[in-house]
Amino acid sequence: MSYNFVKMHGCGNDYIYFDEFEVELPAPQTIVSKLTDRNKGIGGDGIVLIQSSKKVDAKMRIFNPDGSESGMCGNSIRCVGRYLYENGRVKTPHMVVETLSGDKQLDLVVEDNTVMAVRVNMGNVRLAPEEIPVNLQGDTIIGRTVSIASQPYEVTCINVGNPHAVIFHHDIDHFDLHRIGPLFESAPIFPERINIEVAQILSRNNIKMRVWDRGVGETMANGTGACAVAVAAVLMGYCDKDADICVSLKGGDLIIKYTDEAVYMTGDCVKVFEGTVEI
Q1: Rounded distance, CA 173 to CA 248, Å?
Q2: Is the pTM of this model over 0.90?
């Protein structure tokens, strides 16, 4: 059977989007690896299902290339907001999207009926170890030295809808993320695996980062990861609370604001192409 899809990206974090308001994609966890193959498939960091919701405007589900389901993706939800508005599923530029990590409020920046950017209320972060989860003692894990594969690393652990471990480093370009990322992801102290961010402070409220996505590998960007990095930087005293923090990723920049009420993320949402695929 043929299914329509849209390829979109936020800061280079690219996903394949399927509209399930009327037609459901069969067993997404079993076909995602083939669809996301960059040589033999469409190519992408995962697939996103855009569904109707019984309580808010719409619902989003995300599947990684290894078949696992993700609770939240900040870059994907911005693209979902653009799709919903431009395809008439939601008539207003202010909407709420249901995710496994809770309902997220979106405010769209629209020019000539085209969505240029989206601001997402990501909710508040969770810092307690059991809520991340990470098997360490204490009220929080902020600048804590842990041993991964017998090597010490100073990490800050945060849940922003997904679990994240942030490492600050003076030279992230030469940080061996492709070796260290898998070691962190599968470390026993992270019972649900972990996303790894390595971040470099460029100046006050300006950060550069790389990310290792659990179930994916290194990606061009990660919205929840950028939020985690900004929050970690505030908690470590590198950046200011209630300020616009520019987080530069391989695929582009995101603006993050960490307040007492919530974390706000603003960034692009780019439509690449539409197509049809046989399943």
Answers
A1: 13
A2: yes
